Amino acid sequence: MASELHVDAIKHSGGTSALTIDSSGRVLTPARPSFQYEISGYSSGTNYLSSTYRFGSQNDCDIDVNYFSPFPFINSISSGGDGFTTNVGGGASFVDHPVSSDYKYLKFTAPIAGLYCFGMVAHFTNQHTTNDYAAFGLAKNRVDNVGANTSGTSDFDKPLCHGEPAAGQTDVFSGTNITDLALNDYVVFCLRSVQELQIQQSSTLFFGYLIG
User: Fold this and answer.
1) Model confidence over 145-164: pLDDT tens digits?
2) Which of 34, 58, 82, 93 stands 20 to 30 A from 117 (CA)?
3) From CA 105, how far away is CA 212, in angstroms rounded?
């Protein structure tokens, strides 16, 4: 005869609830690490427009980055106005950007080893005078700022999305990927090969969560 274990909840010895099961058999894991950060039309601050901001390598942008670099967030956005809709486990944080301490990048440090899913949605306009591709992805356990496509460090460890909008055209990218993280491994949301992009804040978000 098969063994059965009848429980309504499982907790850590310290009292933290790890798992609950309702009368229909549905399982909730309230301490499972996860985060989501949304940019939703922040409308004040320095060096960006009321509902958009620009970055690229044209030297006429609000945020100049190199060929491969962490996705830049303005300090005012990363610390106010917009923010985390969830950050269970506290793994997601903002760190000074290698291009300038005026900006931050989004970093997730694994609070427990396991398989994680990460993703993003980026709504932007190509402000370059010709077609140009933009790519977004994850760098694992590294923070690289690469000036040209001359090194393997300009490759994503996990790509998320990629496209080539025409000059002046708006596009929306979204993508996800799965990566295996040990305890205290980290990933950084990165971009590459942009001449001049204008991010539309009202529909841009970043997320990640533990699968198991």
Assistant:
1) 988 777 778 899 999 998 88
2) 82
3) 26
**pTM for the structure as a whole:** 0.88
End-to-end CA distance of the chain: 29
Q: Which residue stretches of the chain have pLDDT < 50?
A: 44-51
Residue 202 near residue 41, CB atoms below 8 Å? yes
- Alpha carbons 145 and 153: distance in angstroms, whole number: 9
Based on its alpha-carbon atoms, the radius of gyration of the chain, rounded to whole angstroms, reads: 20
> Token pair for residue 47?
């060096």
Q: Angle at Cα 198 formed by Cα 91 and Cα 74, nearest 5°?
A: 40
**Residue among 8, 190, 205 nearest 120 (CA):** 205
Taken in order of first residue, the domains within the chain and their CATH numbers are 32-210 (2.60.120.40)
Beta-strand relationship, 204-210 and 114-126: antiparallel
DSSP code per residue over 32-98: --EEEEEE-----SSSS-SSEEEEESSSSSSEE--SEEEPPEEHHHHHSSSEEEEEETS-EEEEE-S
Identify the pLDDT of residue 201. 65
